[in-house]
Amino acid sequence: MKTLLCFFLFGCATTAVNRTGEIYDRPAAANARVEVLELGWDSVEDPQVGHPPVVDVKSPRHYRGLVLEQAQDLAQRCNTSALSFEQLARASGPQANAESKFVKAGSQLAYRDAALRLKVGECTAVEGPASDFVVKRVE
Question: What is the pTM of this model?
């Protein structure tokens, strides 16, 4: 029984993350230069039903699901409009952090797989472990 449990736990720990979507069907490039907009979230929805939300106007909460929706909206706007990435970063709010990165195939970034599969000029939203990202491939 212990052996079976060890094999099960080892199998779960080494299983690859299942990514879905059109860009994950494309071949990956060896490296890419991208612009990344990091949208941090600091709260998860309250699991207790019936608790009224506490709204702090000076320091509002950034809930995980809402931040992912914002990242997806920004990625869609990036793909369909003529706005620059800097303009999108300013429009996303004060909690966003935009920067330019060089991504290699062996890097440990949450958005690595998506960044290496994007076409030049294309944007996508990526859900990370502690924040969500809007990634645009520059070259």
Answer: 0.72
CA distance 82 to 65: 27
Q: DSSP secondary structure string, 9-47?
A: HHHHHHPPP---SGGGGSPPPSEEEEEEEEEE--B----
CA-based end-to-end distance of the chain: 52
- Cβ neighbourhood burial of 28 (10 Å; 0-12, 13-18, 19+): middle
DSSP state of 49: T
Task: Name, in order, each residue with C-beta under 8 angstroms of 118's C-beta and a sequence gap of 6 or more.
Answer: 23, 32, 34, 124, 135, 136, 137
- Nearest CA to 75 out of 45, 96, 101 is that of 96
Over residues 51-73, mean pLDDT: 70
Mean local confidence (pLDDT), 41-48:
62
- Helix or strand or coil: residue 53? coil
